[in-house]
Amino acid sequence: MASSTFSWSITPHTPSYPTPKPRNQPPFSNSIINNQSTSESGPQVRKPKGSPQLNRWSRARALRSGHKLERHSNRTTQAVELRSPDSPTDRAPPEPAFKGRDGDDDVERTVGKSIYMVSDGTGWTVEHSVTAALGQFTHCLVDRVCPVSTHLFSGVDDVERLREIVKQAAKEGAMLVYTLADPFMAESAKQACKLWGIQSNDILGPLTEVVASHLGVSPSGLPRGAFGNNLPLTDEYFRRIEAIEFTIKQDDGALPQNLNKADIVLAGVSRTGKTPLSIYLAQKGYKVANVPIVMGIKLPKNLFEADPEKVFGLTINPIVLQTIRRARAKSLGFCDEMRSTYSEMDFVRRELDFAGKIFAQNPTWPVIEVTGKAIEETAAVILRLYHDRKHKCSMPRISKRY
Amino acid sequence: MASSTFSWSITPHTPSYPTPKPRNQPPFSNSIINNQSTSESGPQVRKPKGSPQLNRWSRARALRSGHKLERHSNRTTQAVELRSPDSPTDRAPPEPAFKGRDGDDDVERTVGKSIYMVSDGTGWTVEHSVTAALGQFTHCLVDRVCPVSTHLFSGVDDVERLREIVKQAAKEGAMLVYTLADPFMAESAKQACKLWGIQSNDILGPLTEVVASHLGVSPSGLPRGAFGNNLPLTDEYFRRIEAIEFTIKQDDGALPQNLNKADIVLAGVSRTGKTPLSIYLAQKGYKVANVPIVMGIKLPKNLFEADPEKVFGLTINPIVLQTIRRARAKSLGFCDEMRSTYSEMDFVRRELDFAGKIFAQNPTWPVIEVTGKAIEETAAVILRLYHDRKHKCSMPRISKRY
């Protein structure tokens, strides 16, 4: 539904929120989407409570209208009239084919259960947490016995839009998970969910409270991306970028003369996931080089001259490797002959044996079995070993300073 | 402290946990670190409660001894004797220079407040959440007014190790944040923190409960990386790897003939963060190409032939760009002459103007101001626009099916 002329009251006894004027901004007509552009024409967000500091910051945040541009495009505005949320039919919408009175809007209808994820920032924290929680339900998600759809709403920084989303979640029979730094927004989400009778979970609220109590300081109540609240030009920022650029340049055995500059060196046969693993580690700020092991091709001597404490071997189950290689050969359109040397079982086994002999000759290199591991898991094992070796502490942990 | 001969009881009235035998495995002597290797010699994890299903799975998980190799290395074993946790000095250790009776262990001592993060999986969820929560305390973390250190303990899947960590957190005056799928482990963490008087937060427990109630199924109680609980060879896995490989090959204007194959094309002058942004989006499964805009150099015609709905321009404040370019020129060891053409203000402004003209000629391309935005934030803006355009729905959201 278009938010422009949308009017909705939180309870039938309180007055409706003021109806914002329709705006006719062109959708993406080369408008710079930034933190600085103004939104005087935007909806007047009414915040009945909140500290003066918060109100001041709310104003600053209202200036960040970047993501509003895409919300209020020149779509046809619709006057939406709704029953109050305590009307029983609206409160507990029948599933799965509930049709609201504004059923003409073009929201995608989903099969199965929906989870709405709402964030005032990028939304990656809430997405990450929901994905992790869904990992607990793999047994019913596989084969879509119980299909689940997630819907991410990021950059939600006004209470009206928040309530629209909650209302839509109620219509769709969804639950709501949110990360909202502003205590008023978090409370509004909680109240709106209660009112519409939908289940909800505040991901960061309880954690932020405990951290505040531990540090003995109050939280700012501002989303991470809030105006003036982020300092990307830190040393860490430059270090991450440098790591990514280094890792891209070193990919697939390029520039072996730079192996000594890498923090981590990965060695393994083709399709053991060296590239995605390298990139994942680079995102975390580590310079990674990866060296392919190919049967019959001599490895660069720099690999053996590099600090063996930073070299990690990758190995994989031959049957799984063959499956991956077959898929790869197909997607690359290999001819029959090439396909057989690359993905036939005999070759796969011999190449893995070849790699195994190299690993045996370099006993300092830990060899990691990647079969059945997601990239993140292999990365976690490598980083545990890396930090453990580096700090030689008896309680292996990865420490970071803020 | 070495875990081998460590003995500690959860309350003074319950018997101590059995003392595991010291093991003398070589630290990384080319042992394959995998899900399959056995750990019969490992500690006997006592789980007083838990469903038969959980016990069965606990056994399966005990087979995943990968990360145990690095824990139980051939360091000198120490017999550690501890007072019971209800001894007041242990319960509320004085800060900052608390010295335990086993003060000879080599755990790094940290200044300021510590946050211990414990996970039975990779630990990225807990790390992500803590980083997000710390975003609420930027005002006191900047300039290290209130320094904070985080310590990540990943792959924690036995209760003994968990309790060791809690005890160490208590000694260091740290708080504990955890993601533990096994309800017994989560409960143990809670109880141990209560006993030692330290603050704690369970990140996923409450969310998992709400999701379980929403889906109407019980959670598995297994960490995501548990044996048999992950299926990395899904279509999504292959899609992500393909996206990363595509993006690396397309970096910095390479292979302009492939621009039509990209999901997203980024255009901007040097140092607007095209590469890290491309890689970040690729990790999320999008094929990204980036095209540098260099004053006086003609852009590839394929850029203008590609679907304009997928092209995004990046722009940045000239002063910030100059700062970044100066740092870059320095790190690359540019000579004076090159440095001036690259990072001097006049050139920077003219190049940004040049890019601005190209953007003006292509009004369909949204132009994103990256100044003051972290990579994740720019990515979030791009993905919102991308999905909004693609689905043309009136309630912009990024949907995903599980």
Automatic annotation (TrEMBL), chains A, B:
InterPro entries: Kinase-pyrophosphorylase, PPDK_reg
Name of one Pfam family that matches: Kinase-PPPase
Sequence ranges of Basic and acidic residues compositional bias: 88-102
Entry keywords, A to Z: Kinase, Nucleotide-binding, Pyruvate, Serine/threonine-protein kinase, Transferase
Residue ranges with Polar residues bias: 1-14, 26-42
Recorded GO MF terms: ATP binding; protein serine/threonine kinase activity
Pro residues bias: start-end ranges: 15-25
Region (Disordered): 1-107
Top-level taxonomic group: Eukaryota
PANTHER family xref list: PYRUVATE, PHOSPHATE DIKINASE REGULATORY PROTEIN 1, CHLOROPLASTIC (PTHR31756)
This protein's name: Probable pyruvate, phosphate dikinase regulatory protein, chloroplastic
Species annotation: Cucurbita maxima
Lineage: Eukaryota, Viridiplantae, Streptophyta, Embryophyta, Tracheophyta
